[in-house]
Design brief:
Layout (H helix, E strand, L loop, with lengths): L1 H9 L11 H12 L3 E5 L5 H7 L8 E6 L3 H8 L3 H7 L4 H15 L3 E7 L14 E8 L2 E8 L12
């Protein structure tokens, strides 16, 4: 599963303590700082929200999320501009950032995360291959978006990149 791979790669990061999963480290840091988080997901279909809320005490920092699989939902719920989708596509840095900004505004979170990508097995192009995922973060004074390409697509449960 792609998301398990991400967690394994990040478990040895400066964020996490020995034996601490990424979502536990994120939750601990949010709780210590009194911050809240919201998520907007497309290709992950709610898996990020699921992982964050699996941590005991997550109600202290997790406000909620939006699964915006369809472009219409990205526009209507998250405020992604139609011109962004036309010019850059649903799987783009620009869309990921607008999704994060939108869910942060919608739910009033201090920090928002978003993910949009191509889970496959079809739908990829040479410019945007299967496994491409943009993960964005939006906060009051900070925005960041990372582009990743993972070789495995959907897991048996149907969640993608």
């Amino acid at each position: 599963m792609v998301n398990t791979k991400i967690v394994r790669e990040r478990q040895n990061s400066p964020l996490s303590r020995a034996g601490e999963a990424l979502e536990e480290a994120v939750g601990r840091l949010l709780a210590e700082r009194g911050l809240t988080v919201a998520v907007a997901e497309s290709c992950t279909g709610g898996l990020i929200a699921h992982r964050l809320t699996n941590v005991p005490g997550s109600s202290r920092y997790f406000l909620g999320g939006v699964v915006a699989y369809a472009n219409e939902v990205k526009e209507r719920m998250l405020g992604v501009r139609p011109e962004t989708l036309r010019q850059h596509g649903a799987v783009s840095r620009e869309t990921a950032l607008e999704m994060a900004r939108g869910v942060r505004r919608l739910l009033g979170a201090d920090i928002a995360l978003s993910a949009t990508g191509i889970a496959g097995p079809a739908g990829g192009t040479p410019e945007k291959p299967v496994g491409l995922v943009y993960v964005a973060l939006a906060a009051e004074d900070c925005e960041r978006c990372e582009r990743h390409i993972w070789q495995s697509g959907r897991d048996p449960g149907g969640h993608g990149g």
